[in-house]
Amino acid sequence: MEMRIPKVGFLVIGAQKAGTTALDHYLRQHPQIGMARMKEVHFFDHDEAFVTDHVDYDRYERAFDHSSERRIHGESTPIHLYWEPCCERIHRYNPDMKLIALLRHPVDRAFSHWNMEYHRNAEARDFLTAIGEEHALLSAGQYAQHRIRSYLHRGSYAEQIERYLQFFPPEQMLFLTHDEFRKAPRACLSRIFRFLGVADDLYSFSPVELNRGEASAPLPAAEYDRIGSLFQMDIRKVGALTGLDLSSWSKHTGLH
C-alpha cells in the first residue's frame, strides 16, 4: 500500500486564551507559511472522525490551499493541547509534526476563559462558584474532560505536556509564555520562524491586539492567590518539562 505523505507540518496546539488568535494572525502574514483557511479547524479533537481506523485526512487537508508555493502548512486549534486523544491522533497523521504551545498563568487563563463563556451565555455561574465546583469534582476524582467547563483543568499543563512527550520528541515542540509573547512578540516570532524552518527576513512585523473580549469585575487579590496556590506544584513541573522560566507565575500577578 502506498504511504501517505501528510501535507500539514505544524500545529499551534494551545493553550486556549493564551494568545493563539494573535499568533495565528501573525503567521498568516509570512509568505512561506500556509495557514488553514480558518482558525481552529477542529479536526483532531473531532471524535466522530476517528471512530474507525479509516480516517478521512483528505477532509482535513481541504482546509488548506496546497496550490500555493508555501514551505510549510499549519493551523491553530488551541483545544489540541488539552483534549486527551489529540496527541495520538496527530502523531498517527504526521509523526514529524512540529508543535507550538503558548502557555498562560493558569489563574489568568481560567478567568479569561470563564469571562468568554459567561459573556457568550454558555456559563451562568459566577467565577468563584464555577471554580469551586470544578475543584470539588477534581479532588474527588469525578471530573471528566469538558470543552467549556474546564477552567482549572485546562491550566494543569504538566499532564498535557507529558502526554505529548510520550509521542513527540522535545525538539519537535516549542513552548512560549503568553507574557513573553505579549511583551516581545517580534522576538517570539523569530524563534517560531526558526523552529518552522522559514526565513525571518521576509516578515514585516506590525503589532496587533486581538480577541481580548469583555471583562467582568476584577478578581480580588486574595482569591487570585488562593486559586493560584492550587497550581504551584504543577507550575514547577511545567518549568522542568519545558525549560521555561516560570518564576513570575509563583508570584501574585494581576487580575485585581
What attributes does this structure have?
5 strands; 9% strand; 10 helices; five-stranded parallel β-sheet; alpha/beta; 256 residues; globular
Task: Give a structural overview.
By secondary structure, the chain is of the alpha/beta class. Helices cover 38% and strands 9% of the residues. The protein is built from ten helices and five strands, in the order βαβαβαβαααβαααα. The protein has helices at 20-28, 57-61, 86-93, 106-119, 127-139, 157-165, 178-183, 185-196, 221-229, 232-242, and strands spanning 10-14, 33-35, 72-76, 98-103, 173-177. The protein has a five-stranded parallel beta sheet with strand order 2-3-1-4-5. β2 (33-35), α2 and β3 (72-76) form a beta-alpha-beta unit.
Spell out the blueprint of helices and strands.
Blueprint: E1 10-14, H1 20-28, E2 33-35, H2 57-61, E3 72-76, H3 86-93, E4 98-103, H4 106-119, H5 127-139, H6 157-165, E5 173-177, H7 178-183, H8 185-196, H9 221-229, H10 232-242
Helix pairs in contact: 6-10
